[in-house]
Design brief:
Rossmann fold, 2 domains, seven-stranded parallel beta sheet, six-stranded parallel beta sheet
Length: about 300
């Protein structure tokens, strides 16, 4: 099947990497804002008879969702045989339950929007909490690319005698898997959150970490408060300055300064979202997942993990 990779504005670099990895055509999009703020989009490359692969970086998604839906609809109307979405960072995963009466379940609402516009979805390590798998939320075929193999490769190459550290219980899945791939020990800290940027962390027995480089790993780095608190506690305990690794560099204002002030020796992220800290390339995993969906139609079997 012919493939044409289309970049939602802002995702041009990621789309170019994926097109190269897939040996696929990189399509050209024209986009601008009308004076009243509405979006203008033109697919300047023919997609007729091709599988259109829309690549999107969905940091601060509210401004990007209309263009995402318009691009998918345009590709379909212009004759694309299927339209898929590669969103390495998948937003709207946090509101997965009603904590107060009347709250919108935005995770389900966003899933329905994506499901009406696209035939399949590929993402990297979505922040699943109350959903056991992504297919419990999305009805279209999905593939979840694990960042752990790429992170493990980076740790093996760049860190001497690593000891992986998860800043909280939710990070355990990443440190456990990366630790198994690297063949190094790992530890998970206990977190008590007292506010959006106020957390207290309890350290376990540290004897096994002596002489090793702590490597903090978390999936989404937004304010940086959790990683900063963990780094500070490790430094206070007399350990080496830690390396910090994040999967998704959401990064609100001041996050990297907060990490530096906490004593982090190096901060790197996967290139799911553009940032100067990007050092770990997940493009090969995305391309492999696209290949796994190559012959899968909309009536595919259950989603899987790439």
């Amino acid at each position: 099947m012919n493939r044409c990779v289309l970049a939602l504005p802002g995702a041009e670099a990621a789309a170019g990497r994926l097109a190269t990895c897939l040996a696929a055509l990189l399509g050209r999009i024209e986009s601008r804002r009308f004076p009243d703020g509405e979006t203008y989009l033109r697919v300047a490359t023919s997609v007729a008879g091709s599988e259109a692969i829309v690549v999107a970086e969905l940091r601060r998604p509210d401004a990007r969702i209309p263009g995402l839906l318009f691009l998918a609809d345009a590709a379909r109307e212009l004759g694309a045989s299927r339209v898929g979405l590669v969103a390495a960072y998948l937003p709207y995963m946090r509101q997965d339950a009603r904590f107060r009466e009347g709250e919108a379940l935005t995770s389900r609402s966003f899933a329905r929007l994506v499901g009406t516009a696209f035939d399949w979805l590929i993402t990297v390590d979505p922040h699943l909490h109350r959903y056991p798998t992504l297919d419990a939320l999305y009805e279209i075929p999905c593939r979840v690319v694990a960042a752990a193999p790429a992170i493990a490769d980076w740790v093996r190459e760049h860190v001497v005698r690593p000891h992986l550290v998860g800043p909280d219980a939710e990070s355990e899945q990443w440190v456990r898997e990366v630790g198994a791939l690297v063949g190094c020990p790992w530890t998970v800290l206990q977190k008590q959150r007292r506010g959006d940027r106020d957390v207290v962390l309890a350290l376990p027995e540290l004897a096994g970490m002596a002489g090793r480089t702590p490597v903090l790993i978390d999936d989404i780095v937004s304010s940086g408060s959790t990683l900063a608190a963990a780094a500070q506690r490790l430094c206070e305990a007399g350990l080496e300055a830690p390396v910090c690794i994040g999967v998704h560099a959401v990064l609100s204002a001041g996050a990297t300064d907060r990490l530096a002030a906490a004593g982090v020796s190096r901060f790197v992220t996967c290139n799911t979202l553009r940032h100067a800290s990007n050092a770990i390339d997940i493009t090969p995993g995305l391309a492999q997942a696209v290949g796994a969906l190559a012959d899968v139609g909309t009536a595919a079997g259950p989603p899987g993990v790439a």
